[in-house]
Amino acid sequence: MPSAARKLLELIRFSHTIFALPFALLAAALAWAEEPFRPADLVGILLCMVFARSAAMAFNRLADRHIDARNPRTATRHLPAGTLSAAAVWVFTLACCAGFVASTLLFAFRDPPNHWPLYLCGPVLLFLLGYSLAKRFTSLAHLWLGAALMLAPVAAWIAVKGPTDLTVPLILGAAVAFWVAGFDILYACQDADFDRAAGLHSVPSRFGVPTSLRVAAGCHAVMFGLLVWLGFASPHLGWVYAGGLAAAGGLLVYEHRLVRPDDLTRVNKAFFHVNGVISVGLLVLVLIQLAVR
Asked: So what's the pLDDT on residue 4?
């Protein structure tokens, strides 16, 4: 069992929760600046994030297992390599879906109750799972993934405050959407030739790697602009947040300097390391900002 659990965590790349979770907590922190802090809300947000992302990643591996088996870069993943069975991953996926729905009940039974997470969990889950099929019919799959992660800060805000005063979480969510779309395009550059040969849709397979790198840079420029707008839209953000934005901008520039059309060997460093620092760093700086304001 410990071995199976470890393989399942590897399958869903559990450590990559770091990309979306900090932005969900960032939105919740801004909401708690106006609402009473409830420990049950924090537990509920953490559980919903973990279960929703785990379900989406596991379903993605199931949907792509035959494609992954044909791609040399992904042929060693657990399902095509046979180290996990499809049945086991299906059970894990359904269990995570059930866990996600059950976690929304923490908000329904609090005082005062908030039933919105329970009402919205079904559509959210369908949208998250639907991403896994997107590259079969649209090159906008990267934006679908961005929109899926956009739901993290918006949902966290609604879990704390309900669907009111949504300007701040929508700006933050839009920034997350363009951030994710940009680095997913960078990541997809590795598979541009395979995707084109397999009839799969992506920005790199359609427009080529050089153009895709420019599109990714454009997405990150939009993301940075939205984060600047967030600083003006939220009354709780000030000079600490502004300093963090300058650092985030520098990291985004560094990320794009790591990847060149003729050298994709540092894509993983750009994808995992730099983006992890950006997400966690912004959360830490916002928490410091809220503490000193």
From this structure: 81
- Helix or strand or coil: residue 260? strand
Q: What whole-number distance in Å separates Cα of residue 293 and Cα of residue 289?
A: 6
Q: 172 vs 16, 86, 169, CA distance in Å?
A: 19, 36, 5
Nearest to 5 by CA among 284, 38, 14, 277: 14
Contact 200, 135 (CB under 8 A): yes
Q: Tell the residue number behind the tokens 């879990």, with chain if given.
A: 159
Closest to 107 in 3D by CA, of 153, 147, 157: 157
Partnered with residue 260 across adjacent β-strands are: 263
Locus of tokens 């499809």: 86
CB neighbourhood size of 99 (10 A): 16
Beta strands in 91-139 (DSSP E): none
Q: Grade residue 84 by pLDDT with cuts at 50, 70 and 90.
A: very high
pLDDT grade, residue 274 (50/70/90)?
Answer: confident
Confidence of residue 115 (pLDDT cuts 50, 70, 90): very high
Q: Rounded to whole angstroms, how far apart are CA atoms 230 and 228? A: 5
**Are the CB atoms for 154 and 166 separated by under 8 Å?**
yes
* Burial label, 67 (beta-carbon count in 10 A; 0-12, 13-18, 19+): middle
Give Cα separations from 160 to 42, 220, 241 (angstroms): 9, 28, 22
